[in-house]
């Protein structure tokens, strides 16, 4: 671990980013190049004091979760992100799970989708980043690792995960998850994590095993969904998808379905979500 060099590196990465690149207002009276320390801390979900200590080369060794959050906040590419982990004395996370590297271009697009729920997931349905409206709509993604990081895995192993969709839609969602996972497994080739996830699902879920035996394959590029929210009711939404070049990550965003009252419910959700966020501070 080299905390002094880590602080130097963080300062250099912070100085190169324009506020507009991360969805922040610029303004003519900024006293520092790039972002301010408090802005980076807010983007990474850290306290200003904690981040300041990191830049000064002090404090305890940052966790892998914090390093991943800082890499996303600072829009680091894969080489810069690996360097950040090396300086902090942490192993670079594998390319799966909730700590997987997110491409800066996808983060930039996510930051521009402020008026609609949006999130970035892997092709194994592991949620990587959510905007506030996506958190309000779907709930915050799990912080832990393992197979439970995949919503598709929880869908077949945890009945509580299914509350987000009406019961009459469960069959369609199950079929879509199974076909999409088959496409991901084929695309990834000899990927041990993906193979183990599917193998475990086949052991634990009779429903998944029956669907897997069909051999259906289909990449989930667009879908219509009815999302059940405890505060604003059922929202009829179209889920649109932008795939990364290698197909391993997806930017999802949800828009109101034409002819429904989903737009009104989304506006209400925005109010409810901001109130809940304020109550946690």
UniProtKB/TrEMBL annotation:
What is the top-level taxon of the source organism?
A: Bacteria
Q: Which InterPro entries match?
A: Cro/C1-type_HTH, Lambda_DNA-bd_dom_sf, MLTR_LBD
Residues forming the HTH cro/C1-type domain are 34-81
Which one Pfam family would you cite for this protein? Answer: HTH_31
* Gene3D superfamilies, per the entry: 3.30.450.180, lambda repressor-like DNA-binding domains
Q: What protein name does the entry list? A: Helix-turn-helix transcriptional regulator
Record organism: Amycolatopsis dongchuanensis
Q: Give the classification, highest ranks.
A: Bacteria, Bacillati, Actinomycetota, Actinomycetes, Pseudonocardiales
